[in-house]
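Human: I wish I could look at a protein chain and see how it folds. This is the protein in question:
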Amino acid sequence: MTFIILIVVLALALGFFYNKLVSLKNRVEEGWSGIDVQLKRRYDLIPNLVNTVKGYSTHESETLERVIKARNMAMSVGAGDVAGQAQAESALAGSLKSLFALAESYPDLKANTAFLDLQKNLAEIEENLANSRRYYNALVRDNNTAVEAFPSNLIANAFSFHKYDYFELENKEERSNPTVQF
């Protein structure tokens, strides 16, 4: 009788830890989906921003091309490549800073309502992206703790659950959102 109770308890524990790991994995994937949505919103906004700036600064094509190139590189990062995405996003943030620095030289552009609307939308997207990044990283922390901690690590190893990478920016200078003040 004791042996049967032990088997039942072990089966229940196995089920509990397995379900917990499945739940954490799904939440991490859902958290990444939130980041992906915000990145797509940013990518969709950038061509409009570049075109608006282009109308005022036709001789600044190098800066505009760098922004588009950084956007295209960020969009082409493979799904699930968190480190690659973070590196591409760092480059994109740097090129956006150059774009806004360029805009400082054109007072008419700074007063343009379309540009101001795009600036406001980008600031909102950056804030949402920062929130999504924090949420994702918290879920990654919870998942990674469960994958490493005893006794759930036994289940994680047996069923190939793994740790996820944090979504961190590479350059400490770029850890803040791009400044979009005018």
Summary: The mean pLDDT is 88. The helical segments are 2-54, 61-75, 82-103, 107-111, 113-148, 152-158. The chain has six helices and no strands.
